[in-house]
Write a structure and sequence with these properties.
This protein has 1517 residues and is mainly alpha-helical. It has 47 helices and 17 strands. Strand 5 and strand 6 (976-981) form a beta hairpin. The radius of gyration is 48 Å and the shape is elongated.
């Protein structure tokens, strides 16, 4: 910088007023001079008042000539040996006091001439001080300490004057700076010797030099010669550790100021110590700070020279030492140069810290430079440190950071040169590499890349003699000693390139040098590697040298840890590094015992390697036809990326087998599921492109394209489209990328017309092979080692659920059966663990395992046709419900149900087992039902059934209340509600006993019509009787009839005389005669008797006439009339055994009988019936989708993007269609994302029944007329794209008037009234997804929230004490949201206004106070890369059960599986949130509680006779 300027650093002999002092010494002998100096110094010091009490004595020196005599003597005294320490102390004290003349308040002991011209005499004093600092040779540590004390005093005095003096002239400033330069040169230029003055004073003299220099820059800017002197001096001191430490300290302080005014206060500040905050003068201008920063940055020259001991030792001081040494050695062999590796590392850390400061990495400080694992990539959205998982926001790069090119212009030459230390690039295939390396290299371009292969290094090794001691020679300095500094430089380069913003261009020369540096850093692990050359371009050859399994070099580790985002950015040509990176991954991931650098934890290194692996997993199938040439290869061979796929898959599975860290394991599981799904869909697309399928198979392929979607809409609609043409600057300069046209996974390689090879999937990595390997691996690890970790277990179960939904052509039922068997074994093992091990987390894994088993059985219903599989499933269901199995071993006698104690592991486990049993009985093999996947329940209700009855005229207005009056309502087993309609439907013409039943249970609503038939239906059509059978033939042999009159008493009874006792009863006549009332009653009785006698006589005559001998003309044989009135409800209940006396009585176990009748005429019955029907039997979740254009952060701007398709990415709409299928919210019976339109079919307020506008950009799925919907047998999810209203009511806001709310309309505030723990967040129904209707007259006490009774579920104490209904903490974890955000610019994820958009995502399921507290927002960011892949970022997973898969933060996925993986991740996020909730109740439990609440409110209080009487009355009576 100042090479053209002369240096003002004169030789030491010409400094320090040498002429005057020499004249004094030559004039008198040494002893006389000593005595004179000692007496003079002692006298002057005594007058200062420092040694005696009292004020100082005023100086008697009044003339300049006096000072001309005294000052040379004092200067001569400062040069005395350290044995004369008292004289030295007095001289220092006198001069320090006299220098106070420069301060505002000088001491009284200062001579008058000095006061009159302080700058002149101050320059003389400063010159004399030089002799105090000159080393005196070998001295003892005590003597050196005494000298150091005096030097510290002088430095404090000079520093105080520089800071506080108001009258320092320019010459004085220059003298002061030159003095500091000379004393530093005197102390620091010689080679370091242990315990010398230079080592002890190094840090102090350097700090004073730099701090004073900064003061001079603010007050009297040093001229160029002084700057040149400073640069030359610092380059002579580079063997001192303290120089680099002070250089880093000053650089950080200046950079803090520089960044503050360049990028504003919002830019993250560098953290420095409190002492360093005041280093920079406050009055220093911005231009001055910038000038000083740049000059100080280059003051030590090229920091990479610190790795070259021959350059560092090429100074006069080293040469002088080599000449004067007893052992004549070269300057480059001095032992002090052994510190160069640590000095080089410190310099590289300083440069790396400056890079972090300009990137905006928070908490960048000197203290963090030496922390372990500091090189964690800050640009990675996922913190590699498991302990910092909740601090993702603190690791973000500054949004206003400079471009990569700007940082590389500043630090690139140093970093590239440092990264290529000891690298032999002679084997580079083309000359362009040399030109790239040579350009823009600054001072480093003039030096060879490798200095250890030079002549000096060989001479040093040859000159070593056997008898030399280690203290006198450079014992063992090899290139490996500098690998730490090289690794730091590589890490800084990786962080620079990983900070690339979306759309930012990096100069090709920088990219080329960066790839060369990475390639060299990845392939070298020991010195022998540097001499090896590439023999071939194949990946195996590049990994056969330089990398040993289980040993990862420090440079490779630094690249992995800091370069996790390399393959997530749009870096041109980065795929050429895949073979090199893959070699390091094979060294790190499959090894159980990894030998990593000491400063880096093995877990973090493996996590970084896992991130890189997940980034390159989609490349082989995405760039099937792409062939790359490895960086640095001197052969012409090229490697097809698709050939690396088997290696990647093996690496992934091998890593899973040895990984022990939970976070790393979950990431690998996400990558494994992606591999299987990507391979499956790739095979489907290949088969479609070949047209090798039949018409029947076409439907299966399209459904498999949707992977796990029951609708015909696929996850990848444009299956016949090829990939987009890559941009000119895309990876490898590929013109286009289309998928392989292989027919099957067993096909051989075929040659294309242009000679390139189109690869196909091998047997080992086909979808079927990966499917089988994944099942075996995950199930085995679940049972063996993952069972104790809740997060890993949940991730493994989520992966198995994802595999269950895959449609693979070669899928074998045996593997599926084994998967279900392993799941059941896992559940059995977890339930059988000792009581001490049972916890909430353990039960969460069991609940998730039951859910996973349900998914497998629904997706593969043929498994239940296997007796062994069915028995296994039912056994584990029994275990979950009852807590034990009936038959532990096959040889044991089974225990009956009443013999076992009902003691499940927990009620959560029991509820999950019941859900699995219901799924087996009602959903397996029947899903989707005739109602479609949108509803598991029947769509028929009371009103619909009544309209189809024969007796319904249709004239009156039918309401739910009037319809309920025609039904009889009973509740059986306190959990199943029966609505019985005894009127036959219109389509039943036969006069059979018919009853229509609406059965509402915990798992939904079903409608059945039942008839009492004496014959099977196929025989009932034949009439077994005729209308007129005719007269029968007479039969005369009818027998003899004997009229015998019975006798009731013997004949002798009349002859028995009466006794007095017989006469004790008065006769009837006497009673009648004596009582008039009795006489009247007697007359009435006689009349009744006469009437009865006459009636009996007429009957007798009629009977005689009918039984008289045939023929009788009055008798006709006519068939009896058919019975048209049946009490079918009574018949149904009787036939099912509900009308027994035991069923109608309360039992010990339950206060509610097995059968109770409900009063449907009570007020509120129909409303509560609606609440029960709208309590869904599946979990419901909602995900809101936003599209963010580059640079947007305003909510209204973000929502306006989806109005037109021209405003969004062309793949965005394809992604939306991959999430689910389109439904009309007014004709859709399932969840719609908004309570006012969910679970009902209504008339739209406007014409909203038409198709979606084809030109929309996503606004067609805003929820006003249509949404995207997906469901399976266990869950539902709606995808809503909020958009501006444009005059229509926003779907996220409830109507203000309650009159506009229909029968299933809901408002937000009513959610608190509905019990069972609330209704969950807007994105997932935590409280089992019920939707309470709005009614202002609803009584608070009638809701389940006030239902605090304890209901027994069995004999166990745990069951008896279980409380149903919402607990006090129920609402604390319900209000969460799931956002899917499409980003055009990835950096916009840091400014996404999630909280401002919450008001647009109201679904009606939130609690009334959700706005008063911070909502839990889970965000899945999707960023489309220019190469056709997609980068994923997850945000908000900070809970205990975190990292819901299968997507992983930072993962790169293909276009084929994007929609499927995003949907599965959103569902798993909500499921984990529900698992974490202490008060969550499954849907069937909430429905059961609803029914129990209705029993308490509307139950008929009747005894058994009254109940039977009620059965014989009409429901309308």
């Amino acid at each position: 910088m100042f090479s053209d300027w002369p240096s003002e650093l004169v030789p030491q002999q010409g400094w320090g007023d040498e002429a005057a002092i020499s004249a004094f010494k030559d004039a008198i002998p040494w002893t006389v001079g000593r005595d004179f100096v000692a007496g003079t110094a002692k006298h002057l010091a005594g007058s200062l008042g420092l040694t005696k009490p009292g004020p100082p004595i005023k100086s008697k020196i009044v003339h300049d000539k006096q000072l001309q005599v005294l000052m040379p003597a004092l200067g001569h005294g400062l040069s005395f040996p350290l044995s004369e320490i008292d004289i030295l102390r007095d001289c220092v004290s006198v001069y320090c006091e006299w220098l106070s003349a420069l301060l505002p308040n000088p001491k009284s002991s200062v001579p008058g001439p000095i006061l009159s011209d302080p700058n002149h005499y101050a320059r003389i004093i400063i010159n004399h001080f030089y002799y105090l600092f000159v080393p005196r040779g070998a001295q003892g540590p005590d003597v050196i300490n005494r000298q150091a004390v005096l030097c510290h005093r002088v430095l404090r005095t000079l520093q105080n004057i520089a800071q506080n003096s108001p009258c320092l002239s320019e010459d004085t400033w220059q003298t002061l700076l030159l003095f500091l330069l000379h004393i530093n040169s005197a102390l620091l230029s010689p080679p370091t010797i242990k315990e010398d003055a230079g080592e002890q004073l190094c840090e102090r003299v350097l700090s004073v030099l730099f701090e004073t220099w900064l003061l001079a820059c603010a007050r009297c800017f040093p001229p160029p010669p002084l700057w040149n002197a400073l640069r030359e001096s610092c380059q002579r001191w580079r063997h001192r550790v303290g120089l680099i430490d002070q250089w880093n300290r000053i650089n950080f302080a200046l950079t803090r100021k520089l960044i503050g005014f360049m990028y504003g206060p919002s830019f993250p500040e560098i953290t420095i110590s409190e002492d360093d905050l005041n280093i920079i003068p406050t009055n220093m201008s911005r231009d001055c700070i910038a000038q000083v920063w740049y000059r100080i940055l280059h003051i030590i020259g090229n920091p990479v020279d610190l790795s070259r001991h021959t350059v560092i030792s090429k100074t006069p001081a080293f040469l002088k030492y080599a000449i004067s040494s007893a052992l004549v050695i070269e300057p480059s062999q001095h032992p002090c140069l052994q510190m160069l590796p640590s000095i080089f590392l410190s310099a590289m850390k300083g440069v790396s810290g400056l890079v972090d400061a300009f990137l905006g990495v928070p908490n960048t400080s000197l203290d963090n430079l030496n922390q372990k694992g500091r090189q964690i990539s800050p640009s990675s959205s996922f913190s590699l440190s498991a302990e910092c998982r909740g601090e993702d926001a603190a690791r973000l790069l500054a949004n206003g950071r400079p471009k990569c090119n700007s940082i590389l212009h500043l630090f690139g030459p140093w970093l590239f040169e440092a990264a290529l230390i000891n690298c032999n690039l002679q084997a580079s295939p083309g000359p362009q590499h040399k030109s790239d390396v040579g350009s823009n290299a600054g001072s480093g371009s003039r030096r060879p890349v490798s200095v250890f292969a030079g002549e000096g290094s060989r001479k040093s090794s040859d000159s070593s003699a056997p008898g030399d001691s280690h203290a006198d020679r450079l014992a063992n300095l090899t290139p490996q000693h500098f690998q730490s500094g090289r690794a730091e430089a590589l890490g800084a380069l990786c962080r620079i390139f990983c900070s690339k913003k979306t759309g930012e261009e990096i100069l090709p020369v920088y990219l080329a040098r960066f790839y060369i540096a990475l390639h060299q850093g990845l392939r070298q692990s020991d010195p022998s590697v540097s001499a090896s050359h590439h023999e071939s371009g194949h990946s195996s050859s590049s990994r056969s040298h330089g990398i040993r399994n289980g040993i990862c070099s420090e440079t490779a580790a630094s690249i992995l840890v800091n370069g996790v985002d390399l393959f997530r950015l749009d870096l041109q040509g980065v795929v050429s590094l895949v073979p090199s990176v893959l070699g390091v991954l094979e060294c790190v991931l499959p090894e159980g015992e990894l030998n990593a650098p000491s400063h880096l934890p093995v877990t973090l290194l493996r996590r970084a390697a896992t991130h890189v692996l997940l980034s390159i997993l989609p490349l082989p199938l995405h760039f099937q036809g792409l062939q790359v040439k490895e960086v640095g290869s001197n052969s012409g061979e090229r490697l097809a990326l698709s050939h690396l796929r088997p290696q990647l898959v093996n690496l992934l599975t091998s890593a899973l087998q040895v990984e022990t860290d939970p976070a790393n394991t979950q990431m690998l599981l996400g990558g494994l599921l992606f591999c299987v799904q990507d391979a499956a869909l790739c095979e489907v697309m290949d088969s479609i492109s070949q047209h090798n399928f039949s018409t029947d198979r076409d439907h299966n392929i399209m459904s498999s394209g949707a992977s796990d979607t029951v609708s015909s809409h696929g996850d990848y609609n444009s299956l016949d489209e090829s990939c987009e043409v890559l941009s000119d600057g895309s990876l490898g300069q590929v013109g286009s990328s289309n998928f392989s046209s292989a027919a099957t996974s067993h096909a051989t390689l075929t040659s294309a017309t242009d000679g390139e090879v189109l690869p196909v999937l091998e047997d080992s990595d086909s979808a079927h092979a990966l499917f089988v390997r994944a099942i075996y691996l995950v199930c085995h690890r679940l049972i063996s080692s993952w069972k104790s970790d809740v997060n890993v277990s949940l991730a493994g179960l989520e992966l198995l659920s994802g595999l269950a939904r895959l449609s693979i052509a070669e899928q074998d039922g045996l593997e599926c059966k084994r998967a279900v068997k392993w799941l059941c074994d896992y559940i059995a093992y977890q339930c059988s663990r000792p009581p001490r091990a049972h916890s909430k987390d353990l039960h969460s894994t069991i609940v998730a395992a039951f859910h996973c088993a349900s998914v497998w059985l629904v997706a593969h219903p043929y498994l239940l046709q296997d007796k062994e599989c069915l028995a296994t499933v039912l056994e584990v269901v029994e275990l979950g419900i009852s807590g034990s199995k009936s038959q532990v071993k096959s040889s044991d006698a089974p225990r009956l149900k009443h013999e076992k104690e009902l003691k499940p592991a927990s009620m959560r486990v029991r509820d999950s087992a019941e859900a699995l049993l219901s799924c087996v009985l009602s959903q397996v093999g029947t899903f989707p039902s005739v109602c479609g996947a949108e509803s598991l329940s029947s769509l028929l209700d009371e009103m619909t059934l009544l309209r189809h009855c024969n007796t319904w005229g249709g004239s009156d207005q039918l309401t739910r209340d009037t319809a309920a009056q025609h039904f009889r309502y009973f509740v059986a087993q306190n959990s199943i509600m029966l609505a019985l309609l005894e009127q036959p439907l219109g389509n039943h013409q036969d006069p059979q006993p018919t009853v229509t039943a609406l059965i509402r249970g915990p798992f939904g609503r079903v409608a059945w019509t039942m008839q009492l038939r004496h014959l099977p239906r196929h025989k009932s059509s034949a009439k077994l009787y005729t209308v007129n059978p005719g007269r029968p033939l007479p039969t005369n042999d009818v027998g003899i009839k004997h009229n015998v009159k019975p006798k009731y008493f013997p004949e002798s009874v009349e002859r028995i005389p009466l006794c007095k006792a017989d006469k004790s009863i008065p006769t009837l006549e006497s009673v009648i005669m004596n009582d008039e009332k009795s006489a009247l009653e007697h007359d009435k009785l006689l009349q009744i008797l006469d009437h009865q006698i006459a009636f009996e006589e007429s009957v007798r005559r009629q009977v005689e006439r009918e039984t008289s001998e045939y023929p009788d003309v009055e008798t006709e044989c006519v068939a009896p009339p058919l019975c048209l009135e049946f009490q079918t409800a009574r018949l149904l209940l009787s036939h099912f055994g509900f009308l027994s006396l035991d069923a109608l009585q309360e039992s010990v176990e339950s206060a509610v009988p097995s059968l109770v009748a409900l009063d449907s005429s009570m007020a509120g019955f129909a409303r509560d019936l609606d609440v029960l029907d709208t309590t869904n039997n599946r979990t419901v979740d909602t995900a809101h989708i936003f599209y963010v254009r580059a640079g947007q952060s305003a909510p209204q701007d973000i929502m306006s993007n989806v109005v037109s398709s021209s405003s969004v990415h062309p793949h965005f709409l394809e992604f939306l269609n991959g999430l689910g299928w389109t439904v009309n919210v007014y004709q859709h019976p399932g969840w719609t994302g908004l309570t006012s339109t969910a679970f009902t079919v209504t008339s739209p307020p406007y014409d909203g029944t038409g198709p979606v506008d084809v030109n929309h950009g996503g606004s067609g799925f805003s929820g006003r007329s249509h949404v995207l919907y997906w469901s399976d047998a266990l869950s539902e999810i709606a995808f809503v794209v909020p958009s501006p209203t444009f005059g229509q009511p926003s779907p996220g806001h409830q109507p203000s008037s309650t009159n506009n709310i229909n029968t299933v309309g809901f408002v937000l505030d009513q959610c608190d009234r509905v019990g069972g723990g609330g209704t969950g967040g807007g994105s997932g129904s935590e409280r089992s997804d019920s939707l309470p209707p709005y009614d202002g007259d609803v009584e608070t006490g009638s809701s389940i929230s006030s239902h605090t009774s304890q209901i027994s579920y069995g004999h166990g104490n745990e069951n008896k004490n279980r409380k149903f209904g919402r607990q006090t903490s129920a609402m604390s974890c319900n209000d969460h949201k799931v956002f899917l955000v499409w980003l055009e610019s990835f950096d916009d994820c840091y400014t996404f206004p999630a909280n401002e958009l919450l008001c647009e995502t109201v679904t009606g399921l939130e609690s009334s106070s959700w706005k008063d507290k911070e909502a839990n927002v889970y965000i899945i960011y999707i960023h489309a890369l220019t190469n056709g892949l997609f980068r994923i970022k997850l945000q908000g997973q900070n809970a205990k059960l975190n990292m819901a898969g299968p997507l992983v933060d930072g993962q790169v996925v293909s276009r084929r599986v994007l929609g499927t993986l995003v949907r599965q991740t959103a569902l798993n996020m909500c499921r984990r949130r529900r698992l974490e909730s202490d008060s969550y109740q499954p849907p069937h439990v909430r429905r059961k509680l609803r029914i129990q609440e209705m029993v308490q409110k509307y139950r008929y209080e009747m005894n058994e006779p009254e109940f039977y009487t009620h059965l014989f009355t009409s429901p309308l009576c």
